[in-house]
Design goal:
This protein is of the alpha+beta class. Helices cover about 35% and strands about 25% of the residues. The protein has one domain. Strands 1, 2, 3, 4 and 5 form a five-stranded antiparallel beta sheet that branches. The model has no long low-confidence stretch (mean pLDDT about 85).
């Protein structure tokens, strides 16, 4: 009688461990680096085009999609070192997926943050929709547009 009971306990334990291991992480995806937290805070608190901060503007966008009844998946904030050359430049991003008519539409909101020089640059087109107009880079060939 004890072997079937041990087998059942082992099976339940393995199932619980598998369930725990397959759950997505909760909260921002941050490297073990205090500068990463600073980069995330700079992006979230940066002035936005239609709200006081980027975080509020992104939250408004998500709430608008939810209020329209559109199925969405919102990823966690992610922070990563931009490259090998400089350890002071980080990429901060958040992925928002919404259900369209024929499939899922992904919007990756990403910014590059330089910690010592204290600047933020837009990396993706989705992120440029949240930034103030005066902070966006000029369009290519803008001098040729009449």
């Amino acid at each position: 009688m004890s072997k079937p009971l041990l087998f059942l306990i082992a099976l339940i334990s393995m199932g619980a461990l598998w369930l725990y291991a397959t759950q997505p992480p909760i909260g921002p995806q941050l490297p073990d680096d205090p500068k990463a937290l600073e980069a995330l805070a700079r992006v979230q608190s940066h002035v936005a085009r239609d709200s006081s901060t980027i975080d509020q503007s992104l939250s408004k966008l998500i709430a608008t999609l939810e209020n329209k009844g559109i199925p969405i998946n919102v990823g966690n904030w992610r922070v990563a070192v931009s490259g090998e050359k400089s350890k002071d430049i980080y990429v901060v991003s958040r992925l928002v997926r919404e259900k369209g008519e024929t499939g899922w539409i992904e919007r990756d909101f990403a910014w590059e943050v330089n910690i010592p020089e204290k600047w933020i640059k837009v990396v993706t087109l989705a992120a440029s929709s949240l930034m103030p107009l005066h902070e966006l880079a000029p369009l290519p060939h803008s001098e040729e547009i009449s």
